[in-house]
Amino acid sequence: MNELTITPEIPAYGGLALGRLDGKAVFVKGAIPGETVQARIDEEKKDYCTATVTKVVEPSPDRVEPPCKYFGNCGGCQVQYARYPQQVRMKEEVLATNLRRIARLEIPLSGSLTDREWNYRYRAQFKVDKDRIGFYRERSHEVIDIDACPLMADEVNTALANARPLISHAPLSEFHLSHGEASLALLKAPRGAKTDWKRLAEALIGTGISGVVIDAEGRKPVFFGSSHITLDLSGLIYTVSPLSFFQADWGLNRKVVSAMVDALRPLSGKKVFDLYSGAGNFSLPLAKEAQAVTGVEGNPHAVEDGRRNARLNGITNCKFIRSDVDALDRAGRPDILVTDPPRTGLSGQAVEKIIALNPEQLAYLSCNPSTLARDLGRLSARYEAETVRMIDFFPQTSHIEALAFLRRK
Q1: What is the tens place of the pLDDT at every residue in 36-83?
Q2: Is the torsion defined by CA of 247, 249, 254, 259 positive or negative?
Q3: Active-site annotation, residues
Q4: What are phi and psi of 50, to 5 degrees?
Q5: Strand order in the sheet with 132-136
Q6: Residue 11: φ, ψ to 5°
Q7: Does residue 202 register a pLDDT over 70?
Q8: Helix, coil or strand: residue 101
Q9: What is the pTM assigned to this prediction?
């Protein structure tokens, strides 16, 4: 059987919908739960199979025509065919299912935080293959050439259009753009790539980009022009270099920061540890009210950004330590611990360190619902999860983030 007709009922991680046929689980790409579709079987295992929609037989009322002309070829988006409120509901259900099945926790979600569904990204990582500049096709390293992406802020698309003639055929693997009060570019090149980098950087600056970083594999990054952009963070001056991370959806990020601070109040007299702190996205706003904040970050460029941000805002009770969280060895005990780990979540060693630090409150921002659920399960002997909110930093995609607040039992 190469094709099947099915009505999947449950959303699954990755933008899939889960149904059953003859007792076997079927994960369907391109379907909205509740609608009937014909699908082509892509892979078949003993207990499940994966399939892709070839025809929508009975469409959901939440189905729409994907507005992006690259959808289906570009691998960046997965769920453009669903109205945005339905996307949010599907992500909420996937998050709740992970908490229930992996962590064995029944935690009602306390709402979701969302912002714009289009033109929300102020940071982009474009792949480059000679004259093709865009994103990978799903599950491949084939670059799909694009002229503009509807997820990007207009300023990012404009900067890409202006830069394209200059970087076409340059020996690059990636072209990153970040936008704040101005735009910065990061050019990533494979080992041994040769060109007149200074001339290329100056030409890009001539298009209106304020600074360029050349990051050639095996060599120290070289800066031309401005070294960082400036963003507004709840009234704070927030600077970040192209070699540091910042949330691409900056409008939603400010809502998340406000929700974090509100939930952890009262902060007066409290000591806060911020693990995986980056350039101080949470550390700096928390320091405005807390007694002291310590940011822990392994990226030296982010630590430099964080220290500069503290100086620019006259914040003297916030310090940044360059250290991997697993290797952290600090005396003292925080009242509050904030953590924003990578997709892999907290290592077993990091969980042990958090338990040893024994903070009264934990705030955990996650970019992977399965590792969040796993870590909440690990912490459940000592901490109780009070609230969890879905955070939709990446509309039109299958990515799910969440913000959990825990309190010591």
Answers
A1: 999 999 999 989 999 999 999 999 999 999 999 999 999 999 999 999
A2: negative
A3: 367
A4: -115, 150
A5: 143-145, 132-136, 123-129, 174-179, 183-189, 211-216, 222-225
A6: -70, 145
A7: yes
A8: helix
A9: 0.95
